[in-house]
Amino acid sequence: GNLMGREKDGEFQANFSTNGFMSRLKAYSAVGCFPIGELDREVEFSAIDCTARAVVLLAGTPDKFTVFHVNSCRSVHMANVLKALARAGVEIEVVSDEDYIARFNAALADEKSNIAVSPLIAYNTHNKGLRLVGSKNEFSVKALYRLSFMWPIVEESYIAKVANALVTLEYFD
Predict the structure, then answer these.
(1) pLDDT over 90 for what percent of the chain?
(2) Rounded Cα–Cα distance for residues 136 and 106 (Å)
(3) Is 173 exposed, middle or buried (0-12, 13-18, 19+ CB in 10 A)?
(4) pLDDT at 2
(5) Alpha-carbon distances, residue 8 vs 51, 87, 99, 112, 142 (angstroms)
(6) Predicted pLDDT of residue 126
(7) In whole angstroms, what is the distance from residue 138 CA to residue 145 CA?
(8) pLDDT > 80? residue 30
(9) What's the chain look like in SS3?
(10) pLDDT band for position 3 (50/70/90)?
(11) pLDDT by residue (tens digit) across 83-100?
(12) For 121-171, how does the pLDDT look when each residue is reduced to its tens digit (9 = 90+)?
């Protein structure tokens, strides 16, 4: 899952700069654009405080239950994420898929920007040989329901808190 900032205020973990999802958002910012064909890509946000609470609850389950996938079952489209980033002052232009690929390849070929955009290499849809392996967390979600825990709905206000927290830390500069 995507470990994200606290639910109440969006405050991020101390090592936010090594978070894979955040690195990809920063890379899209460095490219300056996002492919329109990916706006409906679903991403999940597992607020760190909620994740910690879920782990503690699951730690008390019987020993026969040993493997859980502790990540939110709630997802949002990348369009919502980009909207929240824009409101926080991080503008990422939405362009055609072809224009995105051209701009990404140009940034990758440029010695000054290639490190900044490298987190996107494996996630670009033009890498046809790539197959992302997902995970299923239905069992874990149902176990958490039995423990009276529900993942919060990811609202735009929460995404905005996370975006604002990262902007305050000058993450996208």
Answers:
(1) 57
(2) 36
(3) exposed
(4) 85
(5) 13, 19, 38, 37, 24
(6) 53
(7) 10
(8) yes
(9) CCEECCCCCCCCCCCHHHCHHHHHHHHHHHHCEEEHHHCCCEEECEEHHHHHHHHHHHHCCCCCCCCCCCCCCCEEEHHHHHHHHHHCCCCCEEECHHHHHHHHHHHHHCCCCHHHHHHHHHHCCCCCCCCCCCCCCHHHHHHHHHCCCCCCCCCHHHHHHHHHHHHHCCCCC
(10) confident
(11) 999 999 999 999 999 999
(12) 876 655 555 555 667 899 999 999 999 999 999 988 899 888 888 888 888
Q: How far, in Å, CA of 111 to CA of 82, rounded?
A: 26
- Name the token pair of 19: 């978070």
Residue type, 20: G
Distances (CA, A) of 29 to 36, 93, 133, 159: 15, 9, 26, 16
